[in-house]
Amino acid sequence: MASNDIEQLMNGFHAEIGSEKLGWLMEQFSGNKTLRELFQLLWDVPESHQCLSVSLIKSTKCSEKAAKFRIDGNKFYKQRDFEKALRFYNISIMNAPHPEYTKLTLPKSLVNNDINAKMKSVENESNVNQISPEKQEDTALALGFANRSAVLFEMELYEKCLEDIDWAITHGYPESSMEKLGKRRQKCIDAKKRQCKPKVCYLPENCRSILQHILLSSYPTKLPELEEFNSTMPSFSSAVKIAFSSDKGRHIVAVKDIRPGDLIAIEQSYCNSLDWENMGTYCNNCLVRCLIPLPCPYCSLVVFCSERCRQQAVFGDHWLECTILNMLSILVLRPVFSMVYKLLKYPSYIKWKTALEGLQERESQCSPEELGLNELGIYSPTDYESIYHLVTNMEKRPSGDLYVKCLIAFILTDLLKQSKRFFVDYFGNPFDPGKEDLLLMGETLFSNLMKISCNGFQLVEFQCTGPPVTLTRATIGSAVFPTLSLVNHSCDPSTTTYVYGRTQVIRASRCISPGEEITESYCQTFYQEGEEERQMGLLEVYQFTCHCEACQKKWPTYKNLPKEMHIECLDCSRPVGIVTAVCHNCKFDYSCQGHEINKQLSVNGWWNTVKKVKDAFENSRKISEKLKSSQPPTLEDFLVIRDAMETLDKYVISPCQQLWDIYDTMDLYFRLSEDPIFSYLQDYE
């Protein structure tokens, strides 16, 4: 059945089964049934196969389309508009037919039985994206690489230029034009010897100076490292542990004092997906922005930053989604749904089912505190076991949400069957799954849809303009981090998250005491958004109501907070403004230091604290101005910021505008000093 999108499919299904049968079906989703029972209910309705099954339409390559974009690139190249020329050459390369990727030489480190099986599976497919033996003269891909190498030469990106020349030759660049390519190679080699610094003149004007500074500075480009790993959770530091309670479930608490800026966790995503608009400009594997990408050999939707990333993805996470991504687009479904396949992780149904049976047996013997721990007692972010035990919050979901997710799971199961890439034997040969296989798969994809909505993280990069430096938050995709999912939400979180490609880093944003829960914000903080909006968003996406202190006490947003800092009264512990200096509760007046001799020492101590707080905040403000003027951050800057945060955190009563200001300065420091995915480009249009 042909249809434009998921909504039309659903409407057609509802019209076919009629209002009475639809009412009965919806009633089942409001009852106390298991995921398996709900999915089988839908599967056993004959009309579902008639109305919800769609023919799999793969993303195709096209020489004519590739030629059109290459001609557009040539036009901009002649105009010396290299940025636009590069963009059109990239699109041309993405659309050009690709020779059989299985015949390319793979490094030994990437070749294993799973890859060999996948190679066999590709050879068994009748893939329209491949260049047939009688059409090896197709040169669209080679011409795309050759033309792009000319742009890269003009940009003085000589290393990349040489790589594209090699790709052009590998993919059959015409012998008649080979002399021209050889001359460019020699000119590139000669120019590379003379080059002393990267060229950035092709970049948008408002970010050249910052990028030039970054390229020539000693900014760190490596991921930060934990000083001491947690023996149970390798992603976390030894300063925390897993705890369990009936109301919070599994969560993370501190076991010793944690200072602002301290590294708490670092974890690579179990799987991830890019938003539609970012698939052509970000690596599908490592998620870094790539202005000079390599194409997927089979689809025209995704790109990679390097050959290594391409091999890892094509024979890894991209394997199952590759043939199905195009259908998600046709059905107007978000690409995040492709992660339901990536969560499976295993290369075939047979291997996955064997692992699942072992997990189910172990689950029956585990206590709630032990869920997710593997046989070695470790919560590993790479084990399927950690994914299997992530919460779905099924019991909290409205029946309508369960029903829609079940329908989507039905469609995704049917598409997976048609792809012939998962239901294969140990040798990569496709087989027809039986009903029990499909029901098990459907139940799992149904569960995975809910796990993604509860445990998915937005992948964010911060685009930079300036000076003065201004950061703009941009979402590029989504990911699942099994261990980081154990960190609960608070609208006044104790941590901040930083993104390094597909790696997430958590740092303390304030002082955290032993026994205190580690929290992060799943939405905007109370400083940024009102309580009503936060609660609505959390309930809709995560199926819970927040009861953090900020919500219980209805703390106002940043702009509605008093501008004056308050310190605890030494007599009654109520707030005292550092300007008014009078406690509104006990009326003690700190400005009259001599009127009560027995409190003289306390009064002096109070004023010393006021001075300490003012000085700390002023020092932090100066660092903020420095960072926003594009001056490079230093370790000394961080120490000043941390001292200010610790001072205000100790003496000043929250909520407080000044506390947020210091947090904001610390956040800017880390994004400027060590975040390699930090974007110094505008949207690449």
Distance between the termini: 36 Å
Tell me the quaternary state. single chain
* Radius of gyration from CA coordinates: 29 Å
- Major β-sheet profile: 3 strands, antiparallel
* Residue fraction in strands: 5-15%
The outline comes out as: globular
Helix content: 40-55%
Work out the number of β strands: 14
Q: Low-confidence stretches at least 5 residues in length (pLDDT < 50)?
A: 103-112, 126-136, 199-220, 676-685
Please count the helical segments. Answer: 23
Strand order of the largest sheet: 3-11-10
At a glance:
This protein has 685 residues and is mostly helical. Helix content is 44%, strand content 10%.
Structural features, described:
There is one protein chain. This protein is mainly α. Among the domains are: 154 residues, Tetratricopeptide repeat domain (Serine Threonine Protein Phosphatase 5, Tetratricopeptide repeat, Alpha Horseshoe), CATH 1.25.40; 202 residues, no CATH class; 113 residues, no CATH class. 44% of the residues lie in helices and 10% in strands. The strands form six sheets. It has a three-stranded antiparallel β-sheet, covered by helices on one side. Strands 4-8-7 form a three-stranded antiparallel β-sheet. It has a two-stranded antiparallel ribbon with strand order 1-2. A hairpin with a 7-residue loop joins strand 5 and strand 6. Helix 5 packs antiparallel against helix 7, helix 8 runs antiparallel to helix 9 and helix 17 crosses helix 18. The two termini are 36 Å apart.
